[in-house]
Amino acid sequence: MSALAVSGAIEAGLLFSLVALAVYLSFRVLNFPDLTVDGSFPLGAAATAVAIVNGIDPFVATAIGTVAGAAAGYVAGFLNVRFRILNLLAGILTMVALYSINLRVMGRPNISLYDHSTIFTPFEGVLDLGVWTNSAILLVIALAMKFLVDWFLATQVGLALRASGENPTMARAQSVDNNRMTLVGMTLSNGLVGLAGSLFAQSQGVADVSMGIGTIVIGLAALIIGETLLGPVRVVWATLGCLIGAVLYRFFIAAALSAGFLGIQAQDLNLVTAVVVAVAVILSQARRRLRLRLWPKLLGLLPRRQTQEG
Amino acid sequence: MLNICDAHVTFNPGTPLAVPALRGVNLDIEKGEFVTVIGTNGAGKSTLLSAVSGDVRLDRGGVYIDGHDVTGWPTERRAGLLGRVFQEPRAGTCSSLTVEENLALAASRGGRRGLRRALGRGVERRHLTEQLARLGMGLEDRLGAMVGTLSGGQRQALSLLMATLLPMKILILDEHTAALDPGAAATVLELSAEITGEQKLTALMVTHSMRNSLDYGSRTIMMNAGRVLLDIRGEDRKRYTVADLLDLFKKTTGGEVEDDQLLLG
């Protein structure tokens, strides 16, 4: 692998670690299987690209992309809590609607940012890192977002959000408004996705209406890899797992592509991702079953230990 | 403190499966009263508690807590006035949160939750440790343990502490020892009586045991078919035995009492 391929993989990995953090918030913390992601990712890209092309400061444009993503998340959440639309369907409806909206926002299927300055431009002269410049900036952003999520989930609202996702009955009895928590969680989650889309467009130099396809599955793959490596229980480890999982995932994909492994080509990416996620889920279930079957035997062989569960 | 006026609730109204669960319940509970509620399955005990907590909305009638008309309030709003312990230990606590995090959530019940750090430091943590030590379950050393690793009795004791951590108007105990083994059940019941007495709480406890309904609390209500059948307190209540309750029950309903419906011991 060339240095360019490695830096490109790490850059993409860090970008998608933001999606993984978002997916952790929706799928895991909030227990909301949110498919809005495939629409809010290109929405963040589209809004930022249009803003930059129209001469708006790249940092403001990035904020606009983030807010646009957050608004999409709010809509999906609102469909769910206000009209009792199934969470899965609420996300799909929003995602489908966003395809049209993204075309409207851009006015055409793609916008090139090649001749425009992005949030990466000011650092190119300052940081003398060559192909690693974008990765360095994205690493800072990804770490900042990780710590932001860690901090938020340890606040009073964050704790209420976690309780609401895991045990809504208990949360309500502790005066938590579950509907409000769904809205808060979905807004934050898709804000992160919008930010990821915005940064993706700026690092790749293009916003494309079809760039969102498969985003959710890449985010899930990264999340699951991180959980497998670090264990999903504590928040600070889970969010670190999102970063590591996303970078590792993109790195292995890039390695497989460059080595011509099994004849994999760029267009096979979504298939590979789907297979990886499916296999990871199947393996984690099989491992749980295996453990259940093995435990009684092992307990018979080993001296009896007092278990706390009861 | 708690007034229930002419409460009517029907499940699945207008269908062949319509079940009238409450049929005109009137109840006035004074501040500091500890009321035990007994009755067979389907008598309306749990529906009565749900009507107070807000999980079930009344078709007719009203619920008033400390002068507030809460009839139209959703559960999460009423929660600021109530402390609750559920029957199932898993229902009242969060498995993936630590003991300390569960308590922190309870400590902000009824208030505005903001972006302040949820867990306290120093003094607050020492205070929590002292409270946990009083439960006598060894939880004071396990502030950082996931609640999913605790036993049912420990979880229910934690639930009880969470419910009574803040000053509130009414403590609701919904058969909160029914899912525990006999030893843990006795411990949690004793703790409930102790805390209720110490803090002079107004409490409403549903139980399946006739014995417990007379031994604990200051007033006993027997329900049948969605109505209050018997309401005894003070000197009057002291004269009642389990056998009296059983006789009365048979006389009024004209039916047999099955063992699995009411525990006599």
Task: From the structure above, extract its key features.
heterodimer, A: 310 residues, mainly alpha, ABC transporter involved in vitamin B12 uptake, BtuC, 12 helices, 2 strands, 2% strand, B: 265 residues, Rossmann fold, six-stranded mixed beta sheet, four-stranded antiparallel beta sheet, 35% helix
Which outline of chain A best applies?
Answer: globular
**How many β-strand stretches of chain B?**
10
Q: Give the helix tally of chain B.
A: 10
The domain count of chain B comes to 1
Q: Bin the strand percentage of chain A.
A: under 5%
CA-based shape of chain B: globular
Mean pLDDT of chain B, rounded to whole units?
88
- The CATH class label of chain A is Mainly Alpha
Distance between the termini of chain A: 53 Å
Query: Could you describe the largest sheet of chain A, including whether it forms a barrel?
Result: 2 strands, antiparallel
Largest interface: A-B, 26 and 39 residues
Low-confidence stretches of chain B: none
CATH fold category name of chain B: Rossmann fold
Number of helices of chain A: 12
CATH topology of chain A: ABC transporter involved in vitamin B12 uptake, BtuC
Sheet with the most strands: spatial strand order of chain B? 6-7-8-3-9-10
Organism (chain B): Stappia taiwanensis
Main location (chain B): membrane
GO molecular function, one term (chain B): ATP binding
Membrane topology (chain B): Peripheral membrane protein
